[in-house]
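Support request, please re-run this one:
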Amino acid sequence: MNKSEIKKRNIKNLFIGTFFGSFSIALVTFFLPFFLKEQGLSALEIGGLFTLSIAAGSLFFGLFFSKIIRRVKLKFGLFFATVLSFFRTFVLYLFPTIGGIVINQFTNETAKQSYRISADATIQHNVKEGEERKASAFWTMADSLGLIIGIVISIFLIPLISFKLSFLIFSLIALVALFFYLRINDKTRLKTKLKFKELPKISKKLKLILFSEILYWLALSSSFSLVITFLVSEKLSGTILELGVLFIVLHGSMSITLFLTKNRLKKFNEVKTSIFGMICLLTSAIIIILSKNFYLIFSAFILEGIGAGIWVPSKTALQWKNTEKEIREKVSGWLSGLKGFVQAIGPLAGGFLITAIGINAPFYFKAGISIISLGIYFYILKKYKN
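Re-run finished. Output below.
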């Protein structure tokens, strides 16, 4: 098997492993706030609980775990992340309590950062120059499809056998991903260490690109599963089926968009497609703010998926295109750390906004961030004329 074939196999195994890994975390990612709400916790209590444990996990990763994955081959970074994925859900089967939730979210953050850095580096090492956007689309599609299957199974499994047994089943699914990650044959190691004093070496254009991405991740993390759980409760009838359907249409429309546009997007400027995707995301937030009807909210989530399906591969390609090849992994590692930070803040911010202002507040925040991101993209388009 020649080098090119090995790289193709590596990417194939990464995508299949991503599918099963995402399948395994769907229950916790989307339905854990619903589980806690049923235990009587408020939005602010859930948000605070998530923020404290996620922040602790992010700190642990930065101080300890990031040093481990820099010393091993890429596939073992994915291996560690998957073992943690098994543990984070299995602990909820053993201890479906507040203590178990804290351990779950702590472990979840370490697993996510380990996976994100390792998977991103694996793609960079094994994809041809110019094919980054297409690879990013397939990667995101594998992630979304895994989540969709996991959501569908969760909707039927939870009422049938309870949350506790569902946690056990989903923890075992994580082990399937291990088989595919161990088949990745990449002997390179991560080079993610980027000191703060090195940041001025990054171009102003790249700083703007990264800033807009970090802003939107903050908006997204403050309006995701926690807020959507309370959105369904306050604007709709509050059933787990409604909650699951909204998540399915979100990731379903995202997957379809990625599939239909994976070859077409590269014909257009990355900044212009990022703008179009962000306009869809902004419109979705506005529709949710204005509507109390299930079908309007349903359509808003379809539009959100379309926008994400265009924006995610576009902003990834834009980031890689404007980052020197020698420091791509370092920038990805630095960006991953910042994402972990804003995602830790997000749940508490979302819970606070709901409690202090109302269910629409997180979506006003998200709309405001979308407008700022659009301003940044239009500035880049005019200033740099890609």
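The chain has twelve helices and no strands. The longest helix spans residues 132-181.
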